Structure formats: C-alpha cells, structure tokens
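Summary for the steering committee. The consortium agreed at its last meeting that each partner would contribute one worked example illustrating the joint modelling workflow. Our contribution is presented below. We chose a case with several input lines so that the handling of multiple components could be demonstrated. No manual editing was applied between input and output; the record is shown as generated.
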Amino acid sequence: NAGVMQNPRHLVRRRGQEARLRCSPMKGHSHVYWYRQLPEEGLKFMVYLQKENIIDESGMPKERFSAEFPKEGPSILRIQQVVRGDSAAYFCASSPAPQGVTQYFGPGTRLLVL
Amino acid sequence: SQQGEEDPQALSIQEGENATMNCSYKTSINNLQWYRQNSGRGLVHLILIRSNEREKHSGRLRVTLDTSKKSSSLLITASRAADTASYFCATDLIIQGAQKLVFGQGTRLTINP
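What follows is the complete predicted structure of the assembly.
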C-alpha cells in the first residue's frame, strides 16, 4: 500500500507565476489535509477536503490560494501570482476517517519563489 | 499562540542516553500525536495517544499524557544516531466534525555518537 504521494518534490517559481502542488492520498483514504511549514517552524493547517468538497479552509489565505479534490485524480493546491513569502514546504496528509485516526503525511513539496 | 508547545526547543545528548521531550497545550483534546521529521523530509507518525489513555509504548518510545496538566512527554530510550531529527506533538482540533492537527514548533534532537 503506497503512502501519500506528492509531486513535485521541489518547485521553483519566479514571482508572479503560478504553483500547482499535487497530492495523491493513501488508497482508501478520502480525507485530505494540506499544511504549510515555514523554515524552523511547525506545520500550520491550511485546508481540509473530502472528495469534491472543501470542508474547512480556515487556514488558507483568502487570496491567491485555492484547493480542490476532484472525484477523479489527485488533490491540487494552487497558488497564483506567487510571492517570496510563499516559499515553504507544503505537506499533504490523508486519513480514512474525519477524526480519531492518524493522519499520514506525504514527503512534501518544497516551493522556492525567486 | 501555538496550541502545542514543545520543550526544550533543542536537545543534544550522547548516544545511548535517554531523551525526553515535553509538549504542553491549551485546550481540551481528543487525541495527541507525536511525529518525527528528519531534516528536509516529511513527517513520520510515531504514536497516537487518546485523551483517556495515560501512557503508551512503542519499541523504544514511551509517551505519557496528563490531561489535568494539559501536557505530554515523549521518551526515547537508548538513543541512537538515527534518532537525530525534529519531533513534533500535534493536538487535534475538531471543527465541523473533522479533525485538523495543530502542531508545536518542535524539538530538535541531536544524538552525538
């Protein structure tokens, strides 16, 4: 059973470009979470999605950031018009149920904005 | 401020010694989880302890939970160089029936050979 997959592992963008981060949850998991980690800090929750639904996006900036988890295919975190402050590691986690269970994390995508 | 706060922020010990890391949190929880993160890598789940549990073991790891003090500790016995990593506690915050994890800043553990 493959773990949570994320790609790309590293992404370099210039200011103003778009960044698309992909996450494939573990098999059988329909709950996906995105977290952001700034250097030397812990992870901060961004958004929680189930298939085709955004359940909680309270941690996601209102502008330039969006997330989706379509019926088919991976979950996508999209950052438009990136700025240097978006440089961070973005982690995806998945779980088989909405609560009371372990969230399994992917290897992360490290975004560098030049 | 952070829901979970680890203490100490950094810890350096000799191989073979025991390492203890502490975590304090502010609000009521259902579960508390400990994760390990090697430098530049993803998070590896170590242990989940529920609010009605006081202690849990997994190999060389021992986790305690004191809900009256809103604190948890992670003990790694007989440390090895491979244990060098950052360790995070994460508490669950239930919103709209769903769990999101709130992480502390982490403890950076260095095991010296």
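Chain A is about 0% helix and 50% strand. The first strand of chain A starts at residue 5 and ends at 7.
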